[in-house]
Design goal:
By secondary structure, this protein is mainly α. It starts with 10 loop residues before the first helix and ends in a 12-residue tail after the last helix. It has helices spanning 11-28, 34-91, 99-151, 175-201, 206-231. The longest helix is centred in the N-terminal third of the chain and has 58 residues, at 34-91. The chain has one domain (11-158, 171-231). It is elongated, with a radius of gyration of 29 Å.
């Protein structure tokens, strides 16, 4: 079945959007730490995009090797039990209670063989899960860093009647600059959610999907707080209170 571009999220457009946002932040706030944050987002987006194809190739070989090893273990187990059963029937114990240790040993061998088969079958999935969870952890940390950057950008400080204290955070942004700054933070959080969604495109693991969903919920909540700040910005023409 043909997969259209509307059935999955492609990494290319996400990378282009992050790159454009980085250029916009550099043009308006070249000296601020927000530029380094969006640069790190660009690096993470590249890691997700380029790492997916490379890791997918390695996982293909790991999956093939694990399946071959699983077949070997299965064949060996069946062969051993067939030989053991044949010898037990031909020259087995005469009394019934003497069969107990043999049955117990057979059960233990079956359990160990089953564990080996399960480990080999799940090995590729666990490797993929570990890589994606590491990327998602870095994205979650980046989302909190973005939130820290917007935390002190309080619209109240731009009001003419704002009363400053000795502990007030210095505001060196005009009303328009603060709106752009907060808007960039909101866009960055949205893009963090999109990069997380790229991880979900490469996996159907329930833990990965749950982590992606939690991260999207986190960034949406943070972005909502930013837009509440933007809506509270005073009218054009206000100036920050001098410290």
């Amino acid at each position: 079945m043909c997969v259209t571009t509307f059935e999955r999220l492609d990494a290319g457009p996400v990378q282009d959007t992050v790159s454009r946002l980085e250029s916009r932040v550099r043009a308006r706030f070249p000296e601020r730490g927000l530029l380094a944050v969006v640069g790190e987002l660009a690096v993470l987006t590249t890691d997700v995009a380029e790492g997916s194809s490379a890791v997918r190739g390695r996982l293909r070989w790991v999956r093939l090797g694990s399946r071959v090893a699983a077949v070997v273990v299965l064949v060996a187990t069946v062969a051993v039990f067939a030989l053991a059963f044949r010898d037990a029937v031909r020259a087995g114990p005469d009394r019934s209670f003497e069969w107990v240790p043999l049955i117990e040993s057979a059960i233990n061998d079956l359990v160990f063989a089953g564990l080996a088969l399960w480990f080999l079958y799940a090995l590729p999935q666990r490797l993929e899960r570990g890589r994606l969870l590491d990327l998602l952890h870095r994205l979650r940390s980046l989302a909190h860093i973005v939130d820290m950057h917007q935390l002190t950008k309080d619209p109240e400080r731009l009001r003419p009647d704002f009363v400053r204290t000795d502990e007030s955070v210095r505001v060196d942004l005009t009303r328009a600059e603060m709106e752009h700054y907060l808007d960039y933070c909101s866009e960055m959080l949205s893009l963090i959610g999109k990069v997380a969604a790229l991880c979900a495109e490469e996996s159907r693991d329930s833990l990965v999907l749950t982590t992606v969903s939690d991260l999207e919920t986190l960034t949406t909540g943070m972005s909502r707080k930013i837009w509440q700040k933007i809506s509270l910005l005073p009218h054009e023409g206000s100036r920050p209170v001098s410290d």
